[in-house]
Amino acid sequence: MLSEQEIWKLFNERYRLGETPWDTGISPPELLEAIEHPPARLPLRMLDLGCGTGTNCLTLAQRGWQTVGVDFAPLAIEAARRKAQAAADDIARAGGSASFLVADVTRLAPPASADRFFLILDLGCLNGIPLERHADYARVVAEQAMPGALLLLYAHLPVAGRERPRGVSTNELDQLLAGAYRLERREMGSAPQGGASMWNWLRRLS
């Protein structure tokens, strides 16, 4: 099993080589559907966990959202910042913002109450987090979300004999987030890498 440091080096090297099939440059329809009718009188703030090169942060920022992307691969964040700079005029006209942070998503500090997020996005981030840090992940997604926030989470299910991505089962996910989130919707599908995948719409409890 790879160590955390080895996983970091692996992902950064993949970005250096441009071998990033997960980084499509296109925001998924599930995300676009989730923001189609934003709530009135609430700050439109989104946190993207494992943001890669920032595609989804920029999509929302150009629609007036305040977005923060976090990834532990410095080369991914460098690319995200370049893309944000290129789109700066469009983001400003929309009244949005996009900022990016090199960090381990399981070690984010709790935000001030006013800085919590209405939408937390995880497109395959939990897949790559070692099992022993899942409890830290659960703590972070609970702390970062305002009451009523949506956690939109895509994950692979485990495949026998495959180490990476490890994936997460429906039972594991439900147990991990129990007490902090309520499952509103789940759609099963097929992962491009093989095996099953799932989209989850989870609502932060008060």
Structure characterization notes:
β6 (181-190) and β7 (196-204) form a beta hairpin. The protein has 206 residues and is of the alpha/beta class. 35% of the residues are buried. It has a single domain (4-19, 29-204), classed as Vaccinia Virus protein VP39 (Rossmann fold), CATH 3.40.50. It has a 7-stranded mixed sheet with strand order 3-2-1-4-5-7-6, with helices on both faces. 32% of the residues lie in helices and 27% in strands. The mean pLDDT is 90. The protein starts with a helix and ends with a strand.
Bin the strand percentage: 25-35%
What would you say the CATH architecture is? 3-Layer(aba) Sandwich
CATH homologous superfamily label:
Vaccinia Virus protein VP39
CA-based shape: globular
- Strands across the major sheet, in which order? 3-2-1-4-5-7-6
Name of the CATH first level: Alpha Beta
CATH level-3 fold name: Rossmann fold
Distance between the termini: 37 Å
Helix content: 25-40%
The count of domains is 1
Number of DSSP E strands: 7
What's the SSE pattern?
A: HHEHEHHEEHEHEE
Name the structural class. alpha/beta
Mean pLDDT: 90
